Amino acid sequence: MRAITYIRYGAPDVLKLAEIEKPVPCDNEVLVKIKASTVTPMDWKFRSGNTLIARLMTGIIKPKINILGVEFSGEIEETGKDISKFKIGDMIFGRAKKAGAYAEYLCVPEKEICLNPSNASFGEAAGITFGATTALFGLTNTGNIQQGQKVLINGASGGVGLFAVQLAKFHGAKVTAVCSSTNHKMVIDSGADIVIDYMTTDFTKNGEIYDIVFDCVGKRTYSDCKKSLVKHGVYISTVLSFPLLIQMFSSSIFGRKKGKFIFSDFKPDDLLMLKDLYEKKIIKTVIDKTYSLKNIRDAHHYAEKGHVKGKVIVEI
Ligand SMILES: NC(=O)c1ccc[n+]([C@@H]2O[C@H](COP(=O)([O-])OP(=O)(O)OC[C@H]3O[C@@H](n4cnc5c(N)ncnc54)[C@H](OP(=O)(O)O)[C@@H]3O)[C@@H](O)[C@H]2O)c1
Fold first, then answer.
1. Res. 164: pLDDT tops 90
2. Residue 54 has pLDDT above 90, yes or no
3. For residues 278 and 119, is the Cβ–Cβ distance under 8 A?
4. Measured between alpha carbons, how far apart are the two ends of the chain, in Å?
5. Would strands 311-315 and 29-38 be described as parallel, antiparallel, or unpaired?
6. Which of 2, 20, 91, 168 could form a disulfide with 151 if both were Cys (CB 3.0 to 4.6 A apart)?
7. Whether residue 239 has its Cβ less than 6 Å from ligand 1
């Protein structure tokens, strides 16, 4: 089968189109013929190896996994003998915990997949899992979001942020979205009540306070955002830094406001919930650009500039 492999860290040209063995599913796995994947920051950070955190996860000297791609959608071609919830021919989407979706075929456990929303294309279905599961985890597990709360989403136009806007709205929050002016219409169409342009306005200095400040791009620190929180408010970041680690520790002991980093996880029920919300048109994948597998380097170049509007899709 064709796959995009990489054996060393570096710029997008470390990604190579290769012919490799088609995988065979274990008893608890399905074999998926992949139709679409995406470029998430996890893919380009794991490819570049530019951060110590990425290298701690993927290998200090060289990558331990050689095929990237965490989000995917496709069709089940074969099932292991212990598979009970899916059958051959099912159209599914999922999030591969061990990556590997930049390939024509992928073997995954059934707990990492869900039937596609009936109204989603393969590209749209592939784009749901990473951002939406992270947004769901941050707002519900970590933020304990409640109806009527004021929630600020920083980085509202990106893969996580745009789903965070939609999911915060679904939970009945009053949503303030922070993004650049070119993306205002997109975030308002996704449900934001108020939009702030981060280029011209510093939301930490306008006197407004929020129950949750969800920094989906890790561009503002807990110290910056503390005065924008209500008495028991919580700051949540998707990006880990050493100062945030210290602040998480100190805020867990002292004071009522909390600073938290999330490392998003998901359960099969989360995927089912997202499928249901997608079919009810409460959430939607906004596609920025679509690339073919052979143009994956261009897709990585584009995504790592950090200005993705929604999702970057890779058609396999
Ligand atoms: N911890 C976890 O489990 C976890 C899970 C998922 C993602 N993440 C991390 O979360 C981060 C975001 O992921 P993503 O998928 O949303 O990325 P993305 O799709 O690349 O989104 C980047 C977005 O950030 C916006 N942005 C850039 N600079 C900004 C600023 N100063 N203020 C506000 N917005 C700004 C950009 O909009 P403009 O074009 O307007 O600048 C763009 O829309 C990444 O670092 C990723 O690694 C962590």
1. yes
2. no
3. yes
4. 11
5. antiparallel
6. 168
7. yes
CATH 1.10.730.10 fits domain 2-128+285-315: no
pTM over 0.85: yes
CATH of 130-261, one of 3.40.50.720, 1.20.272.10, 3.40.50.300, 1.10.530.10: 3.40.50.720
What type of residue sits at position 149? Q
Whats the size of the chain, residue-wise? 316
Residue 234 has pLDDT above 90, yes or no: yes
According to DSSP, the residues that pair with 90 across neighbouring strands are none
CA 314 to CA 126: how far, in whole Å? 9
Nearest protein Cα to ligand 1, atom 38: 307
Any atom of ligand 1 within 6 Å of the Cβ of 40 = yes
Give the number of the atom of ligand 1 that is nearest the alpha carbon of residue 45.
47
Distance CA 285, CA 278 (A): 9
**What ranges do the domains of the chain cover?**
2-128+285-315, 130-261
CA pair distance 228, 204, nearest whole angstrom: 6
Which residue minimizes the CA distance to atom 34 of ligand 1? 155
**Closest to 34 in 3D by CA, of 62, 76, 66:** 76
Q: List strand residue ranges (DSSP E) for the chain, in order.
A: 2-5, 16-19, 29-38, 71-79, 91-95, 105-109, 113-115, 150-154, 174-179, 194-197, 210-215, 229-237, 258-261, 287-292, 311-315
Radius of gyration from C-alpha coordinates of the chain: 19
Lookup result for tokens 């089912």: 272
Task: Express as a percent the part of the chain with pLDDT over 90.
Answer: 93
Question: DSSP readout, 83-147?
Answer: --S--TT-EEEEE-TT---SBSEEEEEGGGEEEPPTT--HHHHHTTHHHHHHHHIIIIIIT---T
Q: Distance, CA 46 to ligand 1 centroid (Å)? A: 15
Question: What span, in angstroms and rounded, lies between the C-alpha atoms of 71 and 264?
Answer: 14
Q: Tokens 């003998």 sit at which residue?
A: 81
